[in-house]
């Protein structure tokens, strides 16, 4: 979240007139973030978040609206976008696509405890259980089909050892996932790091920032979560956090035999996905704004830890 396009109180007050959300009391730009302009909006009736979309394919925004509407209707802790009096959510403001959301309570956990991990696993399991029936479709933009061409763009910036590592991994993924049976599919968050959640103490207040949302392997989403939430500073998995998330998740949606077999490789592929995407930002496609890119080394370390130490045993589902 950040502010790249400033807005006046008059602009926002006029915008609010379209909605049944009250009258503007205060407007505050949110300084942190990487892609979109974000504002906290307070009316005489509620607290809201206003987002202007600065980058990306704006034609895909209706997918995100439909996904959030769907999850909100199924009582998932997500910010279902506000619709105006005509039933329309997506508007234009200051020449940019704009959405208005309820402001969800809490802050993200820098060092999640076991209760927070359990709450996240439960919510993700609930989400994946219902997201299998979401009618929308947006192919996963960061799966194996993306890795295949994109990894060539960064090889020239890597050491010979890392070039070999990346090429060997991508080749391995082709062999494993190309011949594997189809894994359970559904709608994904696509980027469920801890800073995309909000907690009040141990209670999960919200899952936010669905702008990497897509449809694809549910296991892909779960592996992203474990690689962030259950990984220690040295890249190795933390068994207690790992089991707290996966045990709670499987109460809602038990993993299939095919998913259990693919799990160690999915952890590796999602680690390489972030190593590659961060390398691309550093060397190939820097951000449009003056922002500090994330360190690619973090996910190189995670990938090496998965290679050297493997995956932890998956918790069994109690009958």
UniProtKB/TrEMBL annotation:
Gene: thrB
SUPFAM superfamilies: Protein kinase-like (PK-like)
Organism for this UniProt entry: Halomonas urumqiensis
Keyword Nucleotide-binding assigned: yes
Taxonomic lineage of the native organism: Bacteria, Pseudomonadati, Pseudomonadota, Gammaproteobacteria, Oceanospirillales
GO biological process, one term: threonine biosynthetic process
Reaction equation(s) it catalyzes: L-homoserine + ATP = O-phospho-L-homoserine + ADP + H(+)
Enzyme Commission no: 2.7.1.39
Annotated pathway: Amino-acid biosynthesis; L-threonine biosynthesis; L-threonine from L-aspartate: step 4/5
Molecular function terms from GO: ATP binding; homoserine kinase activity
Domain called Aminoglycoside phosphotransferase: residue spans: 27-255
Identification of the protein by name: Homoserine kinase
Coiled coil start-end: none
Keywords attached to this entry: Amino-acid biosynthesis, ATP-binding, Kinase, Nucleotide-binding, Threonine biosynthesis, Transferase
Pfam family, one: APH
Family of this protein: Belongs to the pseudomonas-type ThrB family.
